Amino acid sequence: MTVTIEDIRAAARLLAGHIVETPCNHSRTLSEITGASIWVKFENMQFTASFKDRGALVKLESLDQDERSRGVVAMSAGNHAQAIAYHCQRLGVPATIVMPVGAPKVKVKNTRRFGARVVLSGETIDESAVAARKLAEEENLIFVHPFDDDKVIAGQGTIGLEVMEAAPDLDCLVVPIGSGGLISGIATAARAIKPGIEIYGVEAAMFPSMYQALRGLPVKAGGRTIADGIAVKTPGERTKPIVREMVKDIMLVSETQLEGAVQMFLEIEKTVAEGGGAAALAAVLAHPEKFTGRKVGIILSGGNIDTRILSAAIEHGLVREGRMVRLRIQISDAPGTLATIARIIGEADANIIEVYHQRAFSSLPVKQAELDVVLETLDRDHIHDIVGHLTAAGFTVQQPGPAG
Known about the structure:
Elements: H1 5-15, E1 24-27, H2 28-34, E2 37-42, H3 52-61, H4 65-70, E3 72-75, H5 79-91, E4 95-99, H6 105-113, E5 117-120, H7 125-139, E6 142-143, H8 150-166, E7 172-176, H9 181-193, E8 198-204, H10 209-214, H11 239-246, E9 249-253, H12 255-269, H13 279-286, H14 288-291, E10 295-300, H15 307-320, E11 324-332, H16 337-347, E12 351-358, E13 368-376, H17 380-392, E14 396-398
Parallel strand pairs: 2-10, 3-4, 3-6, 4-5, 7-8, 7-10, 8-9
Antiparallel strand pairs: 1-2, 11-13, 11-14, 12-13
Helix pairs in contact: 1-8, 3-5, 3-8, 5-6, 8-9, 9-11, 12-13, 12-15
């Protein structure tokens, strides 16, 4: 094992006073919902809103004066980029960051705000890595890997120290996996302190690279995921053996489950999680059989999510829960009909958000029309009640799907 508990404790001493020792709090409401005793480590409260602050600073502090003067280059979808840029700015080290072309705009903007030169290259982290290594060679820069580096792993492992100090009687820890730097450091620390603790990893179902690699399966990953921070096609070479030895299981979560966890963090903990940052909660919700009745620590690894993506995730969640609905109503194209429908909906205590009155693009006869109404509702029972009132008034009502 290349990283030890002594390395992680040394990293913690180096980081003291320079990064946020984030809260690790018990959540009564998440515990009630999941049937487990849930502790949340809020790494979204770091200055750059992710755990990457830790490993980035430990690595940068290990560089000698010549290496610092040459400058560093890194590849990242955003969180490692912001952490490197921020600490380079603090330490006076020139920074170049290569980011995928589709990296979230908020992460690109923040990386530039910290003074780094940003190069957009490649569709994935793996393609960005090729460009970053080329720049390192051409410009004599120090390449700072986001996960396959012992200093970085030790820095991320300081989270494990803090969690075990806050909640020493945890039965298990659930940690997002991109290429494994975070879970490798946390597992090394937590199991050194409490050998019997179980460590579970979580990957987005579209990017199950570590899951596949450890099972000897061909690594097939790709797609547009809300969890861009853990959307990695190639597991780390240093991290893979640590995960194999120390992680009990890796779970995969769908986009719907990730979106639901983002919304739950916002509504219950009043905190913003990015898709990858919410992966651990998504897994606990998706696999209650593994966690019910146990004391579970979950790592909220980051909160850098584009506001448009957050808005869409919230709306999707409201639709899934029956708190927002679209109804399609067949009406006679005559004065007063719209007012009648609005009255019925109002009397049923629903709020109309949008109305679309379709004449030309309807297959109905010319004297009829379709009315699409989007409503704020309480739940699915409330929707059923509204439909009942409209039907009783003589209207034909459908509830089309998202693309209907």
